[in-house]
Specification:
Length: 630
């Protein structure tokens, strides 16, 4: 009889025998593989933490005890055990389960996160809040070893380790980058470390040594030094011990018995402790246990191969165009270097990395460090191109201002996944880069209308020497088939492009909104409304000459952008128009000041009126307002 359908909450998990828990793990993997083949999602990390998730919910009294999952990539098995198995088919769908953890979705989701390395800091805050309020429960943070590359994780570890609070950190090591494979010696060491008698004796011996009379103090000191030397030699946990944690591990993260025994022992303690578990990312995936390859897969893939079943041919994705052009640029210029933050595959930079490994730098999940590292490269005449998702570059904002912009260093920022990101949902939206880059002094801000212009802006960016330069591009296919990079000239600096001339309303459009604006203009022309469309590829600095001509010829101007309207391109240009031509009526069309949830990208655009029909409606509304006012 199948076990998973009978799991309505972790309380049901606690009633199962250890043999049943092993069967449950098998069923959970089968369920995740089956559902994600249709919904898509971050399946690799989830497959790696099935046993770990079972053990945590079997030992800890959730939801009273608080488990904080870092990022949420690890969270799919957690959803299965916390009353959401029946809803799993709605994963990453509009109105369905989030692809990450979300406080409004379940009381078991204690802290929402789509960006890495927040779990320890959040868990410490919960533990401190518990103590302030006089409550009694346990707090455990589950963080991946990849997240330890982030400074935020170390800040949390440093603060938590010396707080002396009752907090547990579970290090999910799925790359084996911290410790060697689990073996007999590791099992022996951990069996001793988790033994309650051993821990009581260790504490008692420490008390005796500390209270030893004068003549024996030196012997006690030598004993402690010997103990630490032996521990450093035998275990990999000395770093965490020095940070103030009792270290347990490494534990085989797929051994239910070892996990249950360890967590049962650790739960009864009340000082900072760290449990190091070794897991295998992508474990059990039919196409093979290839952790990086199966990190995330699209909807409609075949689990046997990992390939999309009904792949469509057509124009390339912006990321693919950028990656190919970047590699070709690397061949042209020996001074170009590329920096990314743990995502060479996702950002399209893998081709450059393969061709020019000595000029490629993956800094891990450390966006702020990556930006400052790039600024350092720029001081030596290197042309660094920082390629990071728009949503993740937010984490390096201070570094962008302080280390690149204030020093006018020519660092290039390629912001992938700018705009609406579809099923990845609110934590990954790239809606804020136009506002946050516009406020940076000395920053050039741009957005291409298609793949060819993306390559032209890339060339313009590396040729620009007077300060940092950024361009944004979406998670989408290009509306064109770009030529080779060598055949694309640089887009002239601070220039716009008038694509259609009319006499009524002027549309100043940015990036991905140029093509829908052109389609809207064609639709409106059939109604007798003559519209001008301008490709505002340079957002800052803007094309002053073209803007002056537009204002001289039009009494109504609509700014259209795929980003938040608050302090965005439209707000920026409206202030300029108000200063230059106060008689011109302006309106802004973009993403409103609210959270945008998961849905297909095409539907998100339509819902927000950022498709041809929506833009046409906005132009009609602007015309009607003018007629009413007149």
């Amino acid at each position: 009889m199948s076990l998973l359908p009978g799991i309505a909450s972790p309380a049901d998990v606690r009633r199962l025998s250890r043999d049943d828990l092993r069967l449950l793990a098998q069923e959970m993997r089968e369920r995740l593989i089956d559902v994600c083949s249709r919904t898509g999602g971050h399946i690799g990390a989830g497959l790696g933490v099935v046993e770990l998730t079972i053990a945590l919910h079997a030992v800890f009294d959730t939801p009273n005890d608080q488990i904080v999952w870092d990022v949420g990539h690890q969270g799919y098995p957690h959803k299965l055990l916390t009353g959401r198995n029946d809803q799993l088919e709605t994963l990453r769908q509009e109105g369905g389960l989030s692809g990450f953890l979300k406080r409004t979705e379940s009381e078991y989701d204690t802290f929402g996160a789509g960006h890495a390395a927040t779990a320890i800091s959040a868990a410490l805050g919960m533990a401190a809040g518990r103590d302030v309020m006089g409550e009694q429960f346990k707090v455990a943070a589950v963080i991946g070893d990849g997240s330890l590359g982030s400074g935020l994780a170390y800040e949390g570890l440093n603060n938590a380790g010396h707080s002396d609070r009752d907090i547990i950190v579970v290090l999910n090591d799925n790359e084996m980058s911290i410790a060697p494979n689990v073996g007999a010696m590791h099992k022996y060491l951990t069996s001793i470390q988790r033994n309650p008698l051993y821990n009581r004796l260790r504490s008692r011996i420490g008390e005796i040594v500390d209270q030893a009379p004068g003549p024996f103090q030196s012997a006690g000191t030598l004993l402690r030094k010997w103990e630490e030397s032996v521990k450093s030699f035998l275990t990999p946990g000395v770093l965490f011990e020095e940070l103030g944690f009792r270290y347990f591990g490494p534990i085989d993260g797929h051994d239910i018995d070892a996990l249950l025994d360890t967590f049962s022992a650790v739960r009864g303690m009340n000082t900072p402790r760290l449990v190091h578990v070794i897991t295998q990312k992508g474990r059990g995936f039919p196409a093979g246990d290839h952790g990086e390859k199966w990190h995330a897969l699209p909807p409609g893939h075949d689990p046997a191969t990992g390939k999309v079943l009904n792949a469509t041919s057509g124009n390339p994705a912006y990321t693919a165009v950028y990656g190919k052009g970047l590699a070709e640029l690397g061949a042209e210029r020996k001074d170009v270097a590329v920096i990314t933050a743990a995502m060479p595959g996702g950002t399209g930079t893998a081709a450059f990395a393969k061709a020019f490994p000595e000029r490629f730098f993956d800094v891990g999940i450390a966006e702020g460090h990556g930006v400052t590292f790039a600024a350092g490269l720029a001081t030596r005449g290197v042309r660094p191109i920082v390629t990071i998702y728009s949503t993740f570059l937010q984490r390096g904002y201070d570094n962008i201002i302080h280390d690149a912009a204030l020093q006018k260093l020519p660092v290039v920022f390629a912001m992938d996944r700018a705009g609406l990101v579809g099923e990845d949902g609110e934590t990954h939206m790239g809606l804020y880069d136009i506002p946050y880059m516009l406020t940076v002094p000395n920053m050039t801000v741009t957005a291409p209308r298609n793949g060819t212009e993306l390559l032209g802006l890339l060339r313009a960016a590396v040729e620009h020497e007077d300060g940092p330069f950024c361009f944004r591009y979406p998670r989408d296919v290009t509306p064109d088939e770009p030529p080779a990079f060598a055949d694309v000239p640089a887009v002239p600096y601070a220039t716009w492009e008038v694509l259609r001339r009319g006499r009524d309303v002027a549309i100043l459009s940015v990036g991905t909104m140029v093509e829908p604006s052109m389609a809207a203009a064609t639709q409106l022309a059939s109604e007798g409304l003559d519209v001008t469309v301008v490709n505002c590829r340079y957002i800052k600095p803007y094309d002053a000459a073209t803007l002056d001509a537009i204002l001289a010829e039009h009494s109504q101007v609509l700014m259209v952008e795929e980003g938040v309207v608050t302090n965005g391109f439209g707000a920026y240009m409206s202030a300029i128009v108000q200063r230059l031509a106060p008689q011109v009526r302006t309106a802004v069309h973009g993403v409103p000041d609210r959270i945008i949830y998961a849905a297909p990208r095409k539907k998100q655009l339509a819902m927000l009126g950022l498709d041809p029909a929506g833009i046409a409606d906005r132009v009609r509304a602007l015309r009607d307002q003018e007629a009413f006012a007149g």
